[in-house]
Amino acid sequence: MTSASPQLFRMLLGPPFPQLIVLAILLGLIAFSDALNNGVGRTPAMGWNPYNAYLCTTTEAQYRAAAQSLIDLGLKGLGYQYVNLDCGWQGKTRASNGTFTWDAAQIPSGVPALASYVHSLGFKFGMYSDGGVFACDFVGGTAHYLGSLGHEADDAKTFASWGADYLKVQFCPTFYVPGL
Ligand SMILES: *[C@@H]1O[C@H](CO)[C@@H](O)[C@H](O)[C@H]1NC(C)=O
Questions:
Q1: 28 Cβ contact partners less than 8 Å away, ≥ 6 residues apart
Q2: What is the pTM (predicted TM-score) of this model?
Q3: Are 83 and 118 in contact (CB under 8 A)?
């Protein structure tokens, strides 16, 4: 088989410019392998999200404990790098200047302090918002956690300034708008 291959190639490619065609194929393969070796998406985003354990009731203490558990269980060493917030961290009204707020009962130290703690353990910090006026909740849309509708760019900047490395955006959209 191996000795037949050159003849097969000559037959398939033929004159007049087989070398050019082979070169083009090789360049194409190099470009293709570059695209696959850019480091993006080699694993899913690996980390901890509280929803399955706590729905929308996760406390700051539970977030901190979970981050420590990722280390204690050896998961950090296996590539679990995110500690993410999920629903219930948000405030219910914006600050008077329109800035997003957190619920001080759920996150007493505040989101920036929690983000710093997560970073200090060597993890990335993920946040959560929603594309609606209000976010998803577990009480039929009546919790009225803040969503980001109409504030997307400002909220993204706010979350980044608080230390977010990742943002999960859910869509519990217009049917949570009062009156619709
Ligand atoms: C808006 O107000 C909050 C406090 O209520 C403050 O932390 C924040 O820096 C203000 N943002 C701007 C853009 O002035």
A1: none
A2: 0.76
A3: yes
Start-end of H helices in 14-78:
18-36, 51-54, 60-72
| Cβ atoms within 10 Å of 51's Cβ, excluding its own | 18
Q: What is the pLDDT of residues 115-125, one digit of tens each?
A: 999 999 999 99
DSSP bridge partners of 126: 84, 166
Q: Which residue from 97, 146, 162 has its CB within 8 A of the most atoms of ligand 1, so it is best to mutate?
A: 97
> What Cα–Cα distance (Å) separates residue 22 from each residue in 8, 25, 27, 34, 41?
13, 5, 9, 18, 30
Q: State the Cα–Cα distance between residues 176 and 52, nearest whole angstrom.
A: 22
Q: At what angle do helices 152-162 and 111-120 cross, to 10 degrees?
A: 50
Render pLDDT for 123-153 as a digit per residue (tens, 0 to 9): 999 999 999 989 999 888 889 999 999 999 9
Q: Is the CB of 97 under 6 A from ligand 1?
A: yes
Residue 43 CB less than 6 A away from ligand 1: no
